[in-house]
Amino acid sequence: MQILISDPFDASLPHMLTAYGEVTEDKGKLADADVVLVRSKTKCTKEYIDAAKNLKLIIRGGVGLDNVDIAYAESKGILVRNTPKASAIAVAELAFALMISVPTNLIEVHNGMKRGEWLKQMRRTELYGKTLALIGMGNIATKLAERAVAFGMRVVAYDKYVKESPIATMMESPEEAVQDADYISLHLPLTDETKGLVCYRLIDACNKAPVLINTGRGLCVDADCVVEALREGKLSWYATDVYPSDPPAADYPLLKCDRVTLTPHIGANSEENLLRIGEEVLYIIDELVKGGKL
C-alpha cells in the first residue's frame, strides 16, 4: 500500500505510517497512491480524484470535508474520513484568544509600546457577565463554551442538529441566538445553507454591536456585509482565522478594513493537535486494514 502525505502533518507521522506500507510526500506519485492524507491546502476535486487511479481512501486531517468532493469519491468506491475531534481544543483556544484580545485592546496597546507610545488612557472591558452566542454547537464550540463559562460568561447557541446542551442555552434560530450577544463565534461547516449566513439579516437581528469571531469557514461570512456593518457600528470588531481561500486574494475587502484582527489560518496548528491528528489518522487506517477494507 502506498500512502501519499499531500499536506503538512506532524513530522513523526511518516515513520509511524511505514507499518502500513510505503509513505511518500512526493505529489508526483498521486497516480500510485492507495491512501491520500490532506489537510486544507489540497483540494480533492473530481480532476484530482481521477488522477489517483489506485485511490481507496482519503483522510482529511481536521474538521469538515468541504475541500473533498465526497459524492464523487464515494461514487468511485473511495472511502472518505476526517479527524473531527482532534482539533477541538486547539481551535477553541484560538477563538478564545481572539475573543479576549479585543476588549483588552491587546494588539493596539502592544503596537503602541513598540512605537514608544504609553497608551495608559485606553480602557478595557471584561468578558465577565457578557453573552457569547455560538453559531454551530459541535466539538469546537463546546470546548469554547466551557472556557467562556469559566470566565463567567452567559452562553447561548444555535445548531440545526443540536437541541440540547449541558453548557449552553439552545435557541430556535441564528437570529434569536445573536439577539443579545456581546460576542458571536462561528463554528459551521461550509454548505449551501451556511454560505453567507452572516449577512445583513443576521447582523440586523443584533440589539448590540457584538464582536464577531470566525474560526469556522471564511465563506460563511458575507465579507461586504461585515465591512459595512463595521463602518456603520453594527459590529464592533471582526476577528478571523479563515478566508475564502488560503491565502485570501489581495482585494479581499476585510484585509484593509479597520477594527479587524486577522490570523493566517493557524487554528489547528498547535503541536499537540498535529500529534492528535496523526493518532486519529493511524487509528482510521488501522481499523480499515483490520476490517479488510484496505
Please specify the SSE layout and strand pairing:
Elements: E1 2-5, H1 13-17, E2 22-24, E3 35-38, H2 46-51, E4 57-60, H3 70-75, E5 79-82, H4 88-101, H5 106-114, E6 131-135, H6 139-150, E7 154-158, E8 169-170, H7 174-178, E9 183-186, H8 200-204, E10 211-214, H9 223-232, E11 237-240, E12 260-262, H10 271-290
Parallel strand pairs: 1-2, 1-3, 3-4, 4-5, 6-7, 6-9, 7-8, 9-10, 10-11, 11-12
Give me some keywords for this one:
five-stranded parallel sheet; alpha/beta; 294 residues; seven-stranded parallel sheet; single chain; 16% strand; elongated; 10 helices
Description:
It contains 10 helices and 12 strands. It has 294 residues and is α/β, with parallel strands linked by helices. 31% of the residues lie in helices and 16% in strands. It starts with a strand and ends with a helix. The relative contact order is 0.14. The strands form 2 sheets. The chain has a 7-stranded parallel β-sheet with strand order 8-7-6-9-10-11-12. Strands 2-1-3-4-5 form a 5-stranded parallel β-sheet. The longest helix is centred in the C-terminal third of the chain and has 20 residues, at 271-290. It has helices at residues 13-17, 46-51, 70-75, 88-101, 106-114, 139-150, 174-178, 200-204, 223-232, 271-290; strands at residues 2-5, 22-24, 35-38, 57-60, 79-82, 131-135, 154-158, 169-170, 183-186, 211-214, 237-240, 260-262. It is elongated.
